[in-house]
Amino acid sequence: MAFRVIPSDSANGITIAQFANARGRKRAAVLYENNPYGRGLADNFQRSFKGRIIAMDPIADGADQSFEAYVSWYKREAPDMIFIAGTDGSGLSFLKEARRQQLTGDLVGGDGWQTLAPSALAEGIYVGAPFSALDPRPEVQTFVAAYKRKYNATPDGNAALAYDATKLLATAVEKVGADRVKIRDYLAGLTATTEYHGVTGTIRFRPDGDPIGKFIRMTRVHQGALEVEAGQ
After folding, report:
1. Largest pairwise CA distance in the chain
2. What is the pLDDT along the chain (232 residues), one digit of tens a residue?
3. Segments making up each domain of the chain, as ranges
4. Integer CA distances (angstroms), 200 to 39, 161, 168, 184, in order
5. CA-wise closest residue to 202 among 220, 186, 189, 215
6. What are phi and psi of 185, to 5 degrees?
7. For the sheet containing 225-228, what is the strand order?
8. How far apart are CA 86 and CA 59, in angstroms?
9. What is this structure's pTM?
């Protein structure tokens, strides 16, 4: 059995749609990487978005592709948001073309876009991220400060998730010893009163190993950093 500390693609797609709904977005275009990650995000966004999806198209999962035709069409049809369910390679190529054509409307990505934040092309985009280094919670700021001292860099969501997974496993070993079955049972048995409090949020698990009550947070890139949006 596998346990994971990041919400599922299904949950993330729903969160992004709820954010768009709350912002009053009525017309969306969707591009999705044609793989389980992209399809999972896009399908669940589609199910939860209350407005009209004017286009939903598959794309490849790398940087070596052209988005000129897509962006030209979006400029003509003027959706109020474009959701790219993909990773940083396709995301960067899309943003280059979107900036070249001065595309307007919200540009939105999932957690696969969180590493784009330092790029000048990413300024102003929205990202559904599992972690923000600007989160004011004391445990987050303690982690960020320690990470910067050690690596002279700001941690992203991947670093924070790896930290939580490692610390959670270490806690399990401290509690029950280095026994695989006991560790599995300890993790499966976490409850609302014994859940682990990590830098990416509290962690306990469903029977299938997915986290309970854990969601990405909608952020916006500002000066190379992911700023948590109000109400998130």
Report:
1. 62
2. 799 999 988 899 999 999 999 999 999 999 999 999 999 999 999 999 999 999 999 999 888 899 999 999 999 999 999 999 999 999 999 999 999 999 999 999 999 999 999 999 999 999 999 999 998 889 999 999 999 999 999 999 999 999 999 999 999 999 999 999 999 999 999 999 999 999 999 999 999 999 998 889 999 999 999 999 876 6
3. 9-132+215-228, 138-203
4. 25, 7, 12, 21
5. 215
6. -65, -35
7. 52-59, 27-33, 81-85, 106-109, 126-129, 217-222, 225-228
8. 9
9. 0.91
Core vs surface per residue 136-165: b (16+ CB within 10 A) or e: eeeebeebbeebeeeeeebbbbebbbebbb
Arch. (CATH architecture) of 9-132+215-228: 3-Layer(aba) Sandwich (3.40)
